[in-house]
Amino acid sequence: xxxxxxxxxxxxxxMNDVMKVIRDENILQYDQKFDLECNLKIKLRISLGxxxxxxxxxxxxxxxxxxxxx
Length: 70
Fold this sequence. Notes:
By secondary structure, this protein is an alpha+beta fold. It has helices at residues 15-24, 46-57; strands at residues 3-11, 28-33, 37-45, 63-69. A four-stranded antiparallel β-sheet has the order 2-3-1-4. Strand 2 and strand 3 form a beta hairpin. The termini are close together.
C-alpha cells in the first residue's frame, strides 16, 4: 500500500479533535511528542489523504508538513 506521510503540529488543547480524526479515519501514527505544542507523524492511504487533511486542517492551530510518499 502506497501512503503519504505527514507531520502535524497542534496545541495540546486540540488533542481531542486530532485524536478523533485519527481514530475515525483509522490513521497510522508514529513518532509522537505530546507537550504544550504536540506533533506526530501520520501515514495516510493516498486515496484518503486529501479528505483526511481537509478534516485536520479545520482544527484550530493545526499545521502540517508533507513528508513524502512511501
